[in-house]
Predict the structure.
Amino acid sequence: MNSDQSFTQRLQQAQRAVAELPEPDSAARAHSLQLLAVIKERMTQQGGAISFHDFMQLALHAPGLGYYSAGSRKLGKDGDFITAPETSPLFARCLARAIQPLLQSLPQRHVLEVGAGSGVMAAGVLNELSANNCKLDSYTILELSADLKQRQAETLQQHAPLVNWRDSVPENFTGIVLANELLDAMPVHRVVWEQGKLQECYVAWEEDRFVWQAGPLSTPRLQSRFEEIISRLGDLPDGYVTEINLAAEDWINTLGANLQQGMVLLIDYGFAQHEYYHPQRTQGTLMCHYRHRAHDDPLILVGLQDITAHIDFTAMADSALAADMQVAGYTTQAHFLLGSGLTELAEQNEGDAVQQLELVNQVKRLTLPQEMGELFKVMALTKNFRINMPGFMLRDLRNSL
Protein backbone atom coordinates (compact mmCIF):
# COMPACT_ATOMS: atom_id res chain seq x y z
CA MET A 1 0.00 0.00 0.00
CA ASN A 2 1.53 3.31 -1.07
CA SER A 3 0.58 6.30 1.02
CA ASP A 4 -0.17 9.42 -1.03
CA GLN A 5 0.68 12.31 1.31
CA SER A 6 -0.92 15.04 -0.81
CA PHE A 7 -4.14 13.06 -0.96
CA THR A 8 -4.24 12.32 2.78
CA GLN A 9 -3.37 15.90 3.66
CA ARG A 10 -6.16 17.25 1.49
CA LEU A 11 -8.68 14.90 3.09
CA GLN A 12 -7.52 15.68 6.61
CA GLN A 13 -7.67 19.42 5.93
CA ALA A 14 -11.15 19.06 4.44
CA GLN A 15 -12.56 17.58 7.67
CA ARG A 16 -14.54 20.09 9.68
CA ALA A 17 -13.52 20.91 13.24
CA VAL A 18 -14.98 18.34 15.61
CA ALA A 19 -13.63 19.76 18.87
CA GLU A 20 -17.14 20.80 19.96
CA LEU A 21 -18.58 17.29 19.82
CA PRO A 22 -19.77 15.98 23.21
CA GLU A 23 -17.36 13.68 25.01
CA PRO A 24 -18.46 10.03 25.19
CA ASP A 25 -18.91 8.63 28.68
CA SER A 26 -16.62 5.91 30.03
CA ALA A 27 -18.90 3.05 28.91
CA ALA A 28 -19.12 4.44 25.37
CA ARG A 29 -15.36 4.91 25.20
CA ALA A 30 -14.79 1.33 26.36
CA HIS A 31 -17.21 0.08 23.72
CA SER A 32 -15.45 2.11 21.02
CA LEU A 33 -12.07 0.71 22.08
CA GLN A 34 -13.40 -2.84 21.67
CA LEU A 35 -14.47 -2.12 18.10
CA LEU A 36 -11.24 -0.26 17.41
CA ALA A 37 -9.31 -3.40 18.37
CA VAL A 38 -11.39 -5.50 15.97
CA ILE A 39 -10.73 -3.06 13.12
CA LYS A 40 -7.01 -2.91 13.86
CA GLU A 41 -6.86 -6.71 13.83
CA ARG A 42 -8.54 -6.75 10.42
CA MET A 43 -5.97 -4.22 9.20
CA THR A 44 -3.14 -6.43 10.44
CA GLN A 45 -4.64 -9.41 8.62
CA GLN A 46 -4.81 -7.41 5.39
CA GLY A 47 -1.32 -5.96 5.49
CA GLY A 48 -1.86 -2.71 7.40
CA ALA A 49 -4.87 -1.04 5.75
CA ILE A 50 -8.45 -1.83 4.73
CA SER A 51 -10.71 -0.19 2.19
CA PHE A 52 -13.04 2.46 3.53
CA HIS A 53 -15.89 0.19 2.41
CA ASP A 54 -14.68 -2.47 4.88
CA PHE A 55 -14.03 0.14 7.57
CA MET A 56 -17.57 1.50 7.25
CA GLN A 57 -19.02 -2.01 7.27
CA LEU A 58 -17.26 -2.81 10.55
CA ALA A 59 -17.97 0.59 12.11
CA LEU A 60 -21.70 0.25 11.46
CA HIS A 61 -22.40 -3.48 11.40
CA ALA A 62 -19.68 -5.49 13.23
CA PRO A 63 -21.63 -8.10 15.27
CA GLY A 64 -22.34 -6.79 18.76
CA LEU A 65 -20.05 -3.79 18.34
CA GLY A 66 -20.98 -1.83 15.22
CA TYR A 67 -23.11 1.29 15.50
CA TYR A 68 -26.29 -0.46 14.34
CA SER A 69 -25.52 -3.74 16.09
CA ALA A 70 -24.86 -2.44 19.60
CA GLY A 71 -27.34 -1.28 22.21
CA SER A 72 -27.03 2.51 22.26
CA ARG A 73 -30.09 4.52 21.27
CA LYS A 74 -29.68 5.91 17.75
CA LEU A 75 -32.99 7.48 16.73
CA GLY A 76 -35.05 10.23 18.27
CA LYS A 77 -34.31 13.07 20.66
CA ASP A 78 -32.19 10.88 22.92
CA GLY A 79 -30.16 9.44 20.02
CA ASP A 80 -27.94 10.85 17.31
CA PHE A 81 -30.41 11.86 14.60
CA ILE A 82 -34.13 12.03 13.83
CA THR A 83 -35.67 10.46 10.74
CA ALA A 84 -38.92 11.54 9.10
CA PRO A 85 -41.10 8.96 10.94
CA GLU A 86 -39.79 10.31 14.29
CA THR A 87 -40.26 13.88 13.07
CA SER A 88 -44.00 13.48 12.59
CA PRO A 89 -46.62 10.70 12.61
CA LEU A 90 -48.00 12.34 9.47
CA PHE A 91 -45.12 10.82 7.48
CA ALA A 92 -46.19 7.21 8.09
CA ARG A 93 -49.85 8.12 7.60
CA CYS A 94 -49.03 9.58 4.17
CA LEU A 95 -47.10 6.43 3.22
CA ALA A 96 -50.00 4.24 4.28
CA ARG A 97 -52.47 6.26 2.23
CA ALA A 98 -50.13 6.17 -0.75
CA ILE A 99 -49.76 2.39 -0.77
CA GLN A 100 -53.30 1.39 0.25
CA PRO A 101 -54.80 1.49 -3.27
CA LEU A 102 -51.83 -0.51 -4.56
CA LEU A 103 -52.21 -3.18 -1.88
CA GLN A 104 -55.90 -3.51 -2.69
CA SER A 105 -55.10 -4.13 -6.36
CA LEU A 106 -52.54 -6.88 -5.67
CA PRO A 107 -53.44 -10.56 -5.36
CA GLN A 108 -51.58 -10.67 -2.01
CA ARG A 109 -51.45 -7.84 0.51
CA HIS A 110 -47.94 -8.13 1.86
CA VAL A 111 -45.68 -5.29 3.03
CA LEU A 112 -41.93 -5.75 3.47
CA GLU A 113 -40.07 -2.99 5.31
CA VAL A 114 -36.29 -3.17 5.06
CA GLY A 115 -34.39 -1.61 7.95
CA ALA A 116 -37.27 -0.51 10.18
CA GLY A 117 -35.25 1.48 12.72
CA SER A 118 -37.23 1.98 15.91
CA GLY A 119 -40.41 0.54 14.39
CA VAL A 120 -42.23 3.87 14.58
CA MET A 121 -42.89 4.01 10.83
CA ALA A 122 -44.21 0.44 10.78
CA ALA A 123 -46.57 1.22 13.66
CA GLY A 124 -47.82 4.37 11.92
CA VAL A 125 -48.40 2.58 8.61
CA LEU A 126 -50.20 -0.32 10.28
CA ASN A 127 -52.40 1.98 12.38
CA GLU A 128 -53.42 4.06 9.37
CA LEU A 129 -54.16 1.04 7.17
CA SER A 130 -56.25 -0.46 9.96
CA ALA A 131 -58.14 2.81 10.47
CA ASN A 132 -58.98 2.78 6.75
CA ASN A 133 -60.12 -0.87 6.86
CA CYS A 134 -57.24 -2.13 4.72
CA LYS A 135 -56.41 -5.61 5.98
CA LEU A 136 -52.93 -6.98 5.33
CA ASP A 137 -51.86 -10.58 4.90
CA SER A 138 -48.51 -9.81 6.58
CA TYR A 139 -46.10 -7.04 7.54
CA THR A 140 -42.54 -8.36 7.35
CA ILE A 141 -39.47 -6.52 8.63
CA LEU A 142 -36.06 -7.36 7.24
CA GLU A 143 -33.68 -6.41 10.05
CA LEU A 144 -30.14 -7.69 10.74
CA SER A 145 -29.62 -5.93 14.09
CA ALA A 146 -30.78 -8.01 17.06
CA ASP A 147 -30.95 -4.87 19.18
CA LEU A 148 -33.22 -3.06 16.72
CA LYS A 149 -35.40 -6.17 16.30
CA GLN A 150 -36.07 -6.12 20.03
CA ARG A 151 -36.97 -2.42 19.99
CA GLN A 152 -39.21 -2.90 16.98
CA ALA A 153 -41.00 -5.79 18.70
CA GLU A 154 -41.67 -3.57 21.73
CA THR A 155 -43.01 -0.77 19.54
CA LEU A 156 -45.22 -3.14 17.53
CA GLN A 157 -46.67 -5.24 20.37
CA GLN A 158 -50.26 -4.47 19.47
CA HIS A 159 -49.65 -5.71 15.91
CA ALA A 160 -47.81 -8.86 17.05
CA PRO A 161 -49.93 -11.44 15.17
CA LEU A 162 -49.39 -9.63 11.86
CA VAL A 163 -45.71 -8.65 12.09
CA ASN A 164 -42.81 -11.02 11.50
CA TRP A 165 -39.07 -10.67 11.03
CA ARG A 166 -36.56 -12.21 8.65
CA ASP A 167 -32.88 -11.80 7.73
CA SER A 168 -33.06 -11.83 3.92
CA VAL A 169 -35.29 -10.80 1.02
CA PRO A 170 -38.09 -13.38 0.60
CA GLU A 171 -38.19 -15.30 -2.66
CA ASN A 172 -41.03 -14.72 -5.12
CA PHE A 173 -42.36 -11.82 -3.08
CA THR A 174 -45.59 -10.11 -4.12
CA GLY A 175 -46.45 -6.86 -2.39
CA ILE A 176 -45.02 -3.47 -1.41
CA VAL A 177 -41.44 -2.94 -0.25
CA LEU A 178 -40.64 0.12 1.90
CA ALA A 179 -37.10 1.36 2.50
CA ASN A 180 -36.72 4.65 4.38
CA GLU A 181 -33.14 5.86 4.90
CA LEU A 182 -31.77 2.41 4.19
CA LEU A 183 -29.41 2.88 1.26
CA ASP A 184 -27.45 5.75 2.83
CA ALA A 185 -26.22 3.46 5.62
CA MET A 186 -24.82 0.81 3.26
CA PRO A 187 -21.00 0.77 3.12
CA VAL A 188 -19.59 2.74 0.20
CA HIS A 189 -16.31 2.66 -1.68
CA ARG A 190 -14.52 5.99 -1.52
CA VAL A 191 -12.32 6.83 -4.52
CA VAL A 192 -10.04 9.64 -5.66
CA TRP A 193 -9.48 10.73 -9.29
CA GLU A 194 -5.95 12.05 -9.60
CA GLN A 195 -3.74 12.67 -12.64
CA GLY A 196 -6.05 10.63 -14.84
CA LYS A 197 -5.99 7.59 -12.53
CA LEU A 198 -8.66 6.26 -10.20
CA GLN A 199 -7.51 5.06 -6.77
CA GLU A 200 -9.41 3.81 -3.77
CA CYS A 201 -9.41 5.34 -0.29
CA TYR A 202 -8.10 3.06 2.43
CA VAL A 203 -7.92 3.45 6.20
CA ALA A 204 -4.78 2.67 8.23
CA TRP A 205 -3.66 3.11 11.84
CA GLU A 206 -0.82 5.52 12.49
CA GLU A 207 0.27 7.35 15.64
CA ASP A 208 -2.77 6.29 17.68
CA ARG A 209 -5.40 7.31 15.14
CA PHE A 210 -7.00 6.19 11.91
CA VAL A 211 -5.67 7.90 8.79
CA TRP A 212 -6.46 7.93 5.08
CA GLN A 213 -4.34 6.29 2.41
CA ALA A 214 -4.75 5.95 -1.35
CA GLY A 215 -4.25 2.57 -2.97
CA PRO A 216 -5.28 0.26 -5.80
CA LEU A 217 -8.93 -0.47 -6.50
CA SER A 218 -10.31 -3.37 -4.48
CA THR A 219 -12.67 -4.38 -7.32
CA PRO A 220 -12.60 -3.70 -11.07
CA ARG A 221 -16.28 -2.72 -10.83
CA LEU A 222 -15.18 0.65 -9.47
CA GLN A 223 -13.18 1.40 -12.61
CA SER A 224 -16.00 0.44 -14.95
CA ARG A 225 -18.57 2.36 -12.90
CA PHE A 226 -16.38 5.47 -12.84
CA GLU A 227 -15.77 5.25 -16.59
CA GLU A 228 -19.55 5.18 -17.09
CA ILE A 229 -19.87 8.33 -14.99
CA ILE A 230 -17.11 10.11 -16.92
CA SER A 231 -18.66 9.12 -20.25
CA ARG A 232 -22.00 10.62 -19.17
CA LEU A 233 -20.82 13.74 -17.39
CA GLY A 234 -17.37 14.54 -18.76
CA ASP A 235 -14.05 14.68 -16.93
CA LEU A 236 -13.85 15.63 -13.27
CA PRO A 237 -11.28 17.89 -11.57
CA ASP A 238 -7.90 16.51 -10.53
CA GLY A 239 -8.02 15.35 -6.91
CA TYR A 240 -11.77 14.73 -7.02
CA VAL A 241 -12.96 12.50 -4.12
CA THR A 242 -16.33 10.76 -4.18
CA GLU A 243 -18.24 7.63 -3.19
CA ILE A 244 -19.63 4.73 -5.21
CA ASN A 245 -22.31 2.62 -3.53
CA LEU A 246 -21.97 -0.83 -5.07
CA ALA A 247 -23.75 -2.39 -2.07
CA ALA A 248 -26.93 -0.45 -2.85
CA GLU A 249 -26.75 -1.50 -6.51
CA ASP A 250 -26.34 -5.14 -5.45
CA TRP A 251 -29.27 -4.87 -3.06
CA ILE A 252 -31.55 -3.57 -5.80
CA ASN A 253 -30.40 -6.40 -8.08
CA THR A 254 -31.25 -8.93 -5.35
CA LEU A 255 -34.60 -7.32 -4.77
CA GLY A 256 -35.43 -7.36 -8.47
CA ALA A 257 -34.55 -11.04 -8.70
CA ASN A 258 -36.90 -11.91 -5.84
CA LEU A 259 -39.80 -9.53 -6.52
CA GLN A 260 -42.54 -11.38 -8.35
CA GLN A 261 -45.00 -8.52 -8.55
CA GLY A 262 -45.32 -5.19 -6.77
CA MET A 263 -43.54 -1.96 -5.97
CA VAL A 264 -40.40 -0.84 -4.11
CA LEU A 265 -40.56 2.62 -2.50
CA LEU A 266 -37.13 4.11 -1.76
CA ILE A 267 -36.91 7.22 0.45
CA ASP A 268 -33.47 8.68 1.05
CA TYR A 269 -31.36 11.78 0.64
CA GLY A 270 -29.42 12.12 -2.56
CA PHE A 271 -29.26 13.43 -6.10
CA ALA A 272 -29.47 12.49 -9.72
CA GLN A 273 -26.03 11.62 -11.11
CA HIS A 274 -25.28 15.00 -12.69
CA GLU A 275 -25.77 16.62 -9.27
CA TYR A 276 -24.09 13.87 -7.26
CA TYR A 277 -20.88 14.08 -9.29
CA HIS A 278 -20.96 17.83 -9.74
CA PRO A 279 -17.44 19.21 -10.42
CA GLN A 280 -17.68 21.41 -7.33
CA ARG A 281 -18.54 18.49 -5.02
CA THR A 282 -14.85 17.68 -4.69
CA GLN A 283 -14.90 15.89 -1.31
CA GLY A 284 -17.90 13.62 -1.79
CA THR A 285 -20.96 13.37 0.45
CA LEU A 286 -19.83 11.46 3.55
CA MET A 287 -21.52 12.70 6.71
CA CYS A 288 -21.54 11.55 10.33
CA HIS A 289 -24.13 12.11 13.04
CA TYR A 290 -23.37 12.07 16.75
CA ARG A 291 -25.80 13.37 19.37
CA HIS A 292 -27.58 15.58 16.84
CA ARG A 293 -24.38 17.12 15.57
CA ALA A 294 -23.30 16.59 11.97
CA HIS A 295 -19.67 16.50 10.85
CA ASP A 296 -17.62 14.83 8.12
CA ASP A 297 -14.92 12.80 9.89
CA PRO A 298 -15.85 9.09 9.79
CA LEU A 299 -12.54 8.02 11.36
CA ILE A 300 -13.36 9.15 14.91
CA LEU A 301 -15.92 7.95 17.50
CA VAL A 302 -15.80 4.47 15.99
CA GLY A 303 -18.99 2.56 16.72
CA LEU A 304 -20.56 5.58 18.42
CA GLN A 305 -21.62 7.63 15.40
CA ASP A 306 -23.65 7.08 12.28
CA ILE A 307 -21.80 7.23 8.95
CA THR A 308 -23.77 7.94 5.79
CA ALA A 309 -23.32 8.87 2.14
CA HIS A 310 -25.89 10.45 -0.16
CA ILE A 311 -27.53 8.29 -2.83
CA ASP A 312 -26.83 8.44 -6.56
CA PHE A 313 -30.40 7.86 -7.71
CA THR A 314 -29.37 7.51 -11.34
CA ALA A 315 -27.29 4.47 -10.36
CA MET A 316 -30.29 3.08 -8.47
CA ALA A 317 -32.47 3.54 -11.57
CA ASP A 318 -29.84 1.84 -13.77
CA SER A 319 -29.66 -1.10 -11.36
CA ALA A 320 -33.44 -1.40 -11.31
CA LEU A 321 -33.66 -1.51 -15.10
CA ALA A 322 -30.92 -4.14 -15.20
CA ALA A 323 -32.96 -6.18 -12.69
CA ASP A 324 -36.04 -6.12 -14.91
CA MET A 325 -37.82 -3.43 -12.88
CA GLN A 326 -39.25 -0.11 -14.05
CA VAL A 327 -38.74 3.36 -12.59
CA ALA A 328 -42.36 4.36 -12.02
CA GLY A 329 -41.79 7.58 -10.10
CA TYR A 330 -39.11 9.93 -8.79
CA THR A 331 -39.69 13.19 -6.95
CA THR A 332 -38.80 15.15 -3.83
CA GLN A 333 -40.11 14.14 -0.41
CA ALA A 334 -42.05 17.40 -0.20
CA HIS A 335 -43.92 16.82 -3.46
CA PHE A 336 -44.55 13.16 -2.65
CA LEU A 337 -46.02 13.90 0.78
CA LEU A 338 -48.10 16.84 -0.43
CA GLY A 339 -49.41 14.75 -3.32
CA SER A 340 -50.20 11.95 -0.87
CA GLY A 341 -52.47 14.12 1.27
CA LEU A 342 -50.15 15.64 3.89
CA THR A 343 -52.04 18.94 4.04
CA GLU A 344 -55.41 17.22 4.33
CA LEU A 345 -54.16 14.94 7.13
CA ALA A 346 -52.71 17.88 9.02
CA GLU A 347 -55.99 19.77 8.80
CA GLN A 348 -57.90 16.80 10.20
CA ASN A 349 -55.98 16.88 13.48
CA GLU A 350 -57.72 18.71 16.27
CA GLY A 351 -55.96 20.23 19.25
CA ASP A 352 -55.16 23.38 21.17
CA ALA A 353 -53.04 26.22 19.81
CA VAL A 354 -49.80 24.66 21.05
CA GLN A 355 -50.57 21.31 19.38
CA GLN A 356 -51.54 23.02 16.15
CA LEU A 357 -48.30 25.00 16.14
CA GLU A 358 -46.29 21.82 16.66
CA LEU A 359 -48.15 20.19 13.77
CA VAL A 360 -47.32 23.13 11.52
CA ASN A 361 -43.67 22.85 12.52
CA GLN A 362 -43.69 19.13 11.70
CA VAL A 363 -45.07 19.80 8.23
CA LYS A 364 -42.39 22.44 7.69
CA ARG A 365 -39.61 20.04 8.71
CA LEU A 366 -40.92 17.41 6.32
CA THR A 367 -41.40 19.71 3.32
CA LEU A 368 -39.34 22.90 3.41
CA PRO A 369 -36.32 22.95 1.05
CA GLN A 370 -33.91 23.90 3.85
CA GLU A 371 -35.21 21.01 5.97
CA MET A 372 -36.03 17.54 4.52
CA GLY A 373 -38.25 18.57 1.63
CA GLU A 374 -35.80 18.88 -1.28
CA LEU A 375 -32.73 16.85 -0.31
CA PHE A 376 -34.79 13.73 0.40
CA LYS A 377 -36.12 11.99 -2.69
CA VAL A 378 -38.72 9.28 -3.26
CA MET A 379 -38.31 6.68 -6.00
CA ALA A 380 -40.80 3.98 -6.98
CA LEU A 381 -39.62 0.81 -8.72
CA THR A 382 -42.16 -1.66 -10.06
CA LYS A 383 -42.21 -5.14 -11.51
CA ASN A 384 -45.19 -6.66 -13.35
CA PHE A 385 -47.28 -3.91 -11.81
CA ARG A 386 -48.69 -0.59 -13.04
CA ILE A 387 -49.16 2.23 -10.55
CA ASN A 388 -50.81 5.62 -10.57
CA MET A 389 -49.73 7.41 -7.39
CA PRO A 390 -50.75 11.03 -6.66
CA GLY A 391 -47.45 11.45 -4.81
CA PHE A 392 -45.57 11.55 -8.12
CA MET A 393 -48.05 13.76 -9.99
CA LEU A 394 -47.15 17.16 -8.56
CA ARG A 395 -43.59 17.00 -9.85
CA ASP A 396 -42.14 14.17 -11.93
CA LEU A 397 -38.34 14.27 -11.89
CA ARG A 398 -37.63 11.07 -13.82
CA ASN A 399 -36.28 13.04 -16.76
CA SER A 400 -33.52 14.40 -14.50
CA LEU A 401 -32.10 10.92 -13.96
Summary: The mean pLDDT is 91. Residues 26-45 form the longest helix (20 residues).
